[in-house]
Amino acid sequence: MQAKLDLTIQFLDTQYISGFCQLSKDLNKICTLHANCCVGLGAKLHDLRGVLDVWRNYTAGTPDERRAGKFQWKLPGICIH
C-alpha cells in the first residue's frame, strides 16, 4: 500500500509531540498535543481547555521566562494525572 501510494513513513520525534498520557516539560519544542489516551469528547475538551490556559500563560511570559521552563501543567484534569 505504501509503495502504491508513493508514501514515505517516518517516526515522529517525541520531543516535538506531547499528549495527555505523557506531558512534555519543554513547551519551546512542542508542535502538537494529542488526546488519544483520553476517553470521551467532554473529557478531552475539559483538559484541552486547561492546556490552552497553560499555553496562554506561557506565551504571555518574556523570552527569558519561557527559556527558564518554570511553567506548570494544570493538574489534575479528567485525563491528565
TrEMBL record:
Provenance organism: Arundo donax
InterPro entries recorded: At1g28695/At4g15970-like (IPR044821), Nucl-diP-sugar_transferase (IPR005069)
PANTHER family noted in UniProt: EXPRESSED PROTEIN-RELATED (PTHR46038), NUCLEOTIDE-DIPHOSPHO-SUGAR TRANSFERASE FAMILY PROTEIN (PTHR46038:SF14)
Membrane-spanning intervals of the chain: none
Domain Nucleotide-diphospho-sugar transferase: 4-48
Protein name: Nucleotide-diphospho-sugar transferase domain-containing protein
